[in-house]
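INTERNAL AUDIT FORM
Audit reference: QA-55
Scope: verify that the stored structure record matches its stored sequence.
Auditor: D.O.
Record contents follow.
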Amino acid sequence: MSAESLERRTRNYLNNNVPQIQDHGGHFEVEDVDEETGEVTVAIGGACSGCGIAPMTMNAIKHRLPDEVSDISKVTVRQANGPRAAVMPNKTDEMEAMEEYQDYNPPF
């Protein structure tokens, strides 16, 4: 497989299975692909940078990509840092303590 092929498969998976990112005004970028090791780095930004549950989305991407895209061994997901990146408090810990989020499973 070529790095381009792995990048394309990663991008296709995210486009097809994580539409909430774009639907909510966010975006993702496949920043780096190491063909030999299978390591992929994805950055999410736009509205994701200001979203309190972005860490949950990032965690889901990190754990699901290797299961769904063959040849991926490790995924690093980070929030994009740009001049428009909003700094919002991380709501993940607070949400995990709330009963209604105990079984939270992003729909992708």
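Auditor finding: record pair retrieved intact. Residues 94 and 101 are 10 Å apart (CA to CA).
Action required: none
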